[in-house]
Amino acid sequence: MADTLESSLEDPLRSFVRRSVLELGSGTGAVGLMAATLGADVVVTDLEELQDLLKMNINMNKHLVTGSVQAKGGRNRRLSFSTRLHTDGRLHIL
Length: 94
Description:
By secondary structure, the chain is of the alpha/beta class. Helix content is 33%, strand content 17%. GO terms for molecular function: methyltransferase activity.
């Protein structure tokens, strides 16, 4: 995803707008938040103990987001790769 972010600096709107992004092991969610700021629909994921941090960072930066971003994850939890990611059923960036 870092390569896509780097290439998006030349034309950020075209690179991420309406793209579906799943970030695994998001930590603070900074990379996913940047993608959402550039217009992507993002799901950031990490362990249960990081969910509060992810949600706090999403809330603090929601005014910058032009796509969408949501936090999911936790122990023993399955993620659903479906149209709930605001896509045509395809995941664009993982």
